[in-house]
Write a structure and sequence with these properties.
It is a single chain. With 364 residues, the protein is of the alpha+beta class. The protein has two domains: 127 residues, Beta-Lactamase (2-Layer Sandwich), CATH 3.30.450; 140 residues, Heat Shock Protein 90 (2-Layer Sandwich), CATH 3.30.565.10. It contains ten helices and 15 strands. A five-stranded antiparallel beta sheet has the order 4-3-7-6-5. The longest helix is centred in the middle third of the chain and has 37 residues. The radius of gyration is 38 Å and the shape is rod-shaped. The termini are far apart. The N terminus is likely disordered. InterPro entries: HATPase_C_sf, PAS, PAS-assoc_C, PAS-like_dom_sf, PAS_fold, Sig_transdc_His_kinase_HWE.
Length: 364
């Protein structure tokens, strides 16, 4: 009994016809399909490995890791050979493992189609990072779950920036409340120590401008304090004409935000008083502002700021204590633990402010 074998003729260019059996043609087709699948698989892996900032991990239904891209190695620190087959719970922090967070995440992904992954994870070396990503179910053609896809990245920098912004917003809200409260106190005290609406308007506006300048300095520095020299220069700028009129000397000191606001107002009051009644009220008068560190007193390091007026008309203690005097003697002492000494010497006013370094001075 003979078997008939069908065949095709494939003629190569410049050659005789070559008989190929149907089975051989089928094998050739399968080999071509295999090459196509390999090329597609290689292309798929190229895509996965190109996402170097993202950990792309697949897991089976029990949460065991089945594939691992180059980004996962970069983010989590494991080579594929040492992580495949292990539970994805290995990345979770001990406190989350104790609460069953990994299983909860898998269940949520199955129930809702996705589970947001925003939590602390562990790298291979034990260090923590803030993971930001999604857990998704992998479905077959019939819509049945076959496993999970976990895509995440290191979101530590974004989290830190979000926390910084939240802190700034909270600090800004706190400052606004304090500023409004301070503006109210300034208004009440100014009204109490001025005669008539015109005088009140002029003095209150001047003090609000000083308050505004202090906040402008803080805003330019990211609300992280300001140099003491800048406070003094801002207060005395309108009077710095002519040689020797204003002298400012001291080591570089950066004040904390709260100290910036109150000391700006203090220098404004000293400057205003000098321009009205003191050394800056006459052409030959001068103001010298210096500061230096004092030896620790009672275990506390102090910064001494000295305001000294010379060449002006004779001065004497005021008959009544106005806003500026109260600010210097009471507010600075109450808020910052300062000691303030006002000496009304015949040759000019001398004000000494001793400021504790703790919390008031950010650095030198």
């Amino acid at each position: 009994m003979t078997t008939s074998i069908s065949h095709h003729d494939i003629r190569a260019e410049g050659s005789a016809a070559i008989p190929i059996t149907a089975e051989a043609a089928r094998i050739a087709a399968l080999e071509e399909e295999l090459r196509s699948l390999r090329a597609e698989n290689d292309h798929f892996h190229q895509i996965l490995d190109s996402a170097a900032e993202y950990a792309i991990v697949t897991m089976d239904l029990e949460g065991r890791i089945s594939s691992w891209n180059a980004g996962a190695r970069k983010v989590l620190g494991y080579a594929a050979a040492e992580i495949l087959g292990r539970s994805g719970e290995i990345f979770f922090a001990p406190e989350d493992r104790a609460e069953g967070a990994f299983v909860t995440e898998l269940c949520r992904a199955l129930d809702r189609g996705r589970a947001v992954n925003e939590r602390w994870h562990l790298r291979r070396d034990g260090s923590r990072f803030w993971a930001s990503g999604l857990m998704l179910p992998l479905m077959d053609e019939d819509g049945q779950p076959q496993g999970f896809l976990n895509i995440l990245r290191d979101g530590s920098e974004m989290r830190a920036e979000a926390e910084r912004q939240a802190l700034i917003q909270a600090e800004l809200a706190h400052r606004v409340r304090n500023t409004l409260s301070l503006a109210h106190v300034i208004a009440v005290q100014t009204l109490r120590h001025t005669d008539g609406p015109e005088a009140f308007q002029a003095e209150y506006a001047s003090r609000l401008q000083a308050l505004g300048r202090s906040h402008e300095m803080l805003a330019h520095g990211g609300w992280d304090g300001a140099p003491l020299r800048k406070l003094v220069e801002h207060a005395l700028t309108p009077h710095r004409h002519g040689p020797g009129r204003v002298a400012i000397e001291g080591l570089p000191v950066r004040l904390a935000s709260a100290a910036v606001v109150k000391l700006s107002l203090a220098f404004h009051e000293l400057t205003t008083n000098a321009a009205k009644y003191g050394s800056l009220s006459v052409p030959e008068g001068a103001v010298e502002v210096t500061w230096s560190l004092l030896r620790p007193q009672n275990g506390r390091k102090m910064l001494e700021i000295v305001w000294r007026e010379r060449g002006g008309p004779p001065v004497k203690p005021p008959e009544r204590r106005g806003f500026g005097t109260r600010l210097l003697e009471q507010s600075l002492r109450h808020e910052f633990g300062c000691t303030v000494t006002l000496a009304f010497e015949p040759e000019g006013l001398e004000c000494r402010i001793c400021l504790p370094l703790t919390a008031n001075v950010l650095g030198f």
